[in-house]
Design the sequence.
């Protein structure tokens, strides 16, 4: 593994970790950083590049598990005391997360090949960045004055399913899974923090499932030569996702969604200037 290989893996892992769960589109950032600066597609076969993307996503997923470990332990009944809800009060249930996963799970199974074949392009990412930004502004503008659920423990099954429908928008490259689900949650009456918490918790099983399927398809790319490249990307994605998630959960309560929408418009303009 050359120094440049190490540098590429490190930078892509950092970009993944910083942007995967912020509502700014990790895909858009990967396009800019990789295509303009790193040119990883020229360094590695397509199968290795695809597997690498999955590996660094797994690093980000592990960061979510660490941040929300008490929540996951509660949902699986592995803790006697809940750190997320008052004693005797409502508590987020595993069944509610499953309900939220149903829409995207169905759409993913039915249209995965179509999405991979036809929707991954610069133009589709630009559309996703702009339309997703508009949705975020709409969510902040038309959200209920008083949230119906100020914590993730008060999310209802109806709200969970509605957020799951919004999550389907995140399958469009550039739209951002977190951007669509947080916006949907806010429109459905969750506070920004509750919508963010539910978004991150729901991301673990759906991203894990997609990652396992992808790893199975590209398992032959895990060679001894590629493993150090994967390891560097995984570790850097994990560390920076851990930092990013903790910072974002504090920030979203103060600045809401509009600043992230404006950032998306700037990113879209930059990509358009570079490629068109």
Sequence:
């Amino acid at each position: 593994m050359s120094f440049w290989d190490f540098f590429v893996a490190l930078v892509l892992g950092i970009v993944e970790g910083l942007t995967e769960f912020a509502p700014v589109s990790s895909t858009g950032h990967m396009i800019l950083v990789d295509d303009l600066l790193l040119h990883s597609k020229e360094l590695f076969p397509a199968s290795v590049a695809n597997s690498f993307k999955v590996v660094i996503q797994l690093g980000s997923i592990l960061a979510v598990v660490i941040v929300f470990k008490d929540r996951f332990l509660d949902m699986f009944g592995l803790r006697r005391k809940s750190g997320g809800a008052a004693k005797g009060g409502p508590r987020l249930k595993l069944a509610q997360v499953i309900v939220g996963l149903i829409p995207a799970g169905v759409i993913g199974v039915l249209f995965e090949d179509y999405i991979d074949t036809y929707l991954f392009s610069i133009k589709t990412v630009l559309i996703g960045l702009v339309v997703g930004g508009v949705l975020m502004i709409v969510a902040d503008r038309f959200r209920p004055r008083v949230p119906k659920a100020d914590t993730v423990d008060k999310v209802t099954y109806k709200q969970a399913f509605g957020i799951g429908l919004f999550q389907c928008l995140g399958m469009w490259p550039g739209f951002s899974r977190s951007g669509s689900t947080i916006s949907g949650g806010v429109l459905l009456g969750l506070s920004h923090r509750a919508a963010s918490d539910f978004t991150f918790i729901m991301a673990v099983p759906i991203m894990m499932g997609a990652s396992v399927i992808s790893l199975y398809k590209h398992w032959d790319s895990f060679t001894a030569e590629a493993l150090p490249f994967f390891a560097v990307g995984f570790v850097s994605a994990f560390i920076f996702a851990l930092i990013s998630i903790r910072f974002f959960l504090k920030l979203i309560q103060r600045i809401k969604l509009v600043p992230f929408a404006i950032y998306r418009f700037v990113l879209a303009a930059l990509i358009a200037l570079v490629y068109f």
